[in-house]
Amino acid sequence: MTRKVDVRRLAIRFGFLILLAMAGLFAMSWSSNPPVFPAERGAEHFTPCPDSPNCVSTQATSSEHQMKPLPWTGATDEVVNRIKRAVGDQFARSRLVVDKPNYLRYEVTSLIFRFVDDVEFMIDPETRLVHFRSASRVGHSDLGANRRRMERFVEAFESSP
Predict the structure, then answer these.
(1) Residue 40 CA from chain centroid, whole number
(2) pLDDT score for 38
(3) What is the DSSP string of 85-127?
(4) What is the tens place of the pLDDT at every residue in 74-130?
């Protein structure tokens, strides 16, 4: 005896599961709180990247998370303006939340699920390097979004006057 498949009922159940999953993702993104930012409070280091692959930093020691800091010349206020221009050019849906001497922090929100990534910049006038960190607040994998974002930033920063 063959069993007749009710395609309509199956589609409704599948649609319900998709809606449930999307609601869970939205809830996760809205409930995420910003982590602690030691550099924001004057420390000379960022929070280390977690074991998950959703973070990059110029201060990371693992090759999975590491990127090179950016050398700069000129006055400190000029490099701050270069960072702000490059962020404005490259980061859609970004918001500057902390603007201190030698330190900037942005929140970048994803388009669909509204996940928030934190992007920090630390300007070191002694070594003349810009250090940065970009990390997701929630989840395990970001499918390389933070690394791609910072690679685009590096290109924009290096090509700006």
Answers:
(1) 16
(2) 78
(3) HHHHHH-TTEEEEEEETTEEEEEEE-TTT--EEEEEEEEETTT
(4) 999 999 999 999 999 888 899 999 999 999 999 999 877 778 999 999 999 999 999
Sign of CA dihedral 83, 84, 85, 87: positive
Residue 31 has pLDDT above 70, yes or no: no
Give me the residue label for tokens 């929100």. 109
| Domain at 33-159, CATH from 3.30.470.20, 3.30.310.80, 3.40.50.300, 3.40.50.1820 | 3.30.310.80
Could you give the 3-state DSSP secondary structure of residue 9?
helix
pTM, whole model, 2 decimals?
Answer: 0.77
Q: CA-CA distance, 106 to 119, in Å (whole number)?
A: 5
Q: Which amino acid is at 153?
A: F
For residue 76, the surrounding DSSP H or E stretch is helix 76-90
Mean of the per-residue pLDDT values for the chain? 85
Q: SS3 of 19, please? A: helix
Read off the tokens for 91: 């980061």
